[in-house]
């Protein structure tokens, strides 16, 4: 719902303040289903109380999840302060939940207000350093959801190191983030690692890894597009797997949206030209509308 009646709001508050813990926990789940409309001062105040109660970890976690489901409208300074504390806590499930919720709150969650003591990005960077693969995966996804604001040098350096991971789930999360962290992802070492993974022979069970790599290169755009990458994408248009063919086509479409066009050269290599270059190019080929198609 986009709005909430006074009657429903009053009922939700009564249930959230109920002495029965199971009722409170269930109502936290209900808030997540309601979404942004649940971001009232009183309801968020109840969730803050749950976050502060270190004696009930399950209720804390239910509140964290509810805040993430409510979304950016729940990104109040007091809530962000408490989420930052949970990122440094000892309980893994709470750290994971807090990191996921921060991603769902969006870039606002990473902004540092004047006088604020929290350093959410610093905490995420610290979590990224650890060896726990679930944390690596969640932090990478959260960084991607936060976008370019999260691309600080320390986090980028750790992402570069982790891109070598042979863990399928970790790598996919990292590639997903690389496609969404903005200009910092145009670094040669990042593009080189993604390109290397693109060129690897891919078994059927690794199709999702290949798709993640193509998506990341396409989102990074022109700096990531070399003749070798184009040749590989063209080959993948003929792959047996339909999902791979579709992702290759989508990636080529995204490349073209960045202002690049390309054509095969004799011998199977590829020529890349910008749209501006094409407008000035004089050839004996067929009209450009057909000339530059795959």
Q: Count of helices?
A: 16
* Sheet with most strands: 2 strands, antiparallel
State the separation between the terminal residues, measured CA to CA: 45 Å
What share of the residues does DSSP label as strand, in percent?
Answer: under 5%
Which class best fits the helix and strand makeup? mainly alpha
Lateral arrangement of strands in the main beta sheet: 1-2
Share in helix: 55-70%
C-alpha geometry: elongated
Give the strand tally.
Answer: 2
Mean pLDDT: 83
Low-confidence stretches: 273-294
Series of secondary-structure elements, N-terminal to C-terminal: HHHHHHHHHHHHHHEEHH
**What is the CA-atom radius of gyration, in angstroms?**
23 Å
Brief characterization of the structure:
The protein has 294 residues and is mainly alpha-helical.
Question: What does this protein structure show overall?
Answer:
The chain is mainly alpha-helical. 62% of the residues lie in helices and 3% in strands. It has a two-stranded antiparallel sheet with strand order 1-2. It is elongated, with a radius of gyration of 23 Å. The relative contact order is 0.06.
Layout of strands and helices, then pairs:
Elements lengths: L5 H11 L4 H14 L6 H12 L4 H14 L6 H11 L4 H14 L14 H10 L3 H14 L6 H10 L5 H11 L9 H12 L7 H14 L6 H10 L5 H16 L2 E5 L5 E5 H6 L7 H4 L3
Antiparallel strand pairs: 1-2
Helix pairs in contact: 2-4, 3-4, 3-5, 4-6, 5-6, 5-7, 6-8, 7-8, 7-9, 8-10, 10-12, 11-12, 12-14, 13-14
């Amino acid at each position: 719902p986009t709005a909430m009646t006074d009657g429903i709001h009053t009922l939700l508050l009564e249930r959230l303040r109920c002495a029965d813990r199971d009722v409170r926990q269930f109502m936290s789940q209900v808030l997540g289903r309601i979404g942004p409309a649940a971001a009232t001062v009183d309801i968020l105040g109840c969730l803050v109380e749950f976050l502060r109660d270190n004696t009930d970890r399950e209720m804390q976690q239910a509140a964290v999840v509810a805040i993430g489901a409510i979304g950016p409208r729940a990104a109040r300074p007091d809530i962000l302060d408490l989420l930052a504390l949970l990122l440094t806590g000892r309980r893994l499930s709470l750290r994971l939940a807090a990191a996921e919720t921060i991603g769902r709150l969006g870039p606002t969650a990473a902004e540092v207000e004047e006088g604020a003591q929290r350093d959410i990005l610093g905490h995420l960077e610290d979590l990224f350093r650890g060896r726990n693969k679930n944390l690596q995966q969640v932090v990478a996804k959260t960084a991607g959801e936060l976008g370019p604001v999260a691309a600080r040098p320390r986090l980028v350096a750790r992402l570069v190191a982790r891109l070598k991971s042979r863990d399928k789930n970790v790598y996919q999360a990292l590639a997903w983030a690389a496609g969404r962290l903005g200009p910092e992802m145009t670094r040669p070492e990042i593009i080189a690692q993604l390109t290397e993974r693109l060129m690897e022979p891919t078994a059927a069970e690794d199709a999702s890894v290949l798709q993640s790599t193509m998506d990341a290169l396409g989102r990074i755009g022109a700096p990531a597009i070399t003749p070798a990458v184009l040749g590989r994408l063209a080959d993948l248009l003929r792959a047996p797997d339909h999902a791979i063919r579709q992702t290759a086509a989508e990636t080529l479409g995204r490349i073209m949206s960045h202002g690049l066009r390309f054509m095969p050269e004799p011998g199977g290599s590829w020529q890349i030209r910008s749209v501006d270059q094409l407008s000035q190019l004089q050839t004996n080929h067929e009209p450009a509308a057909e000339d530059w198609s795959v």
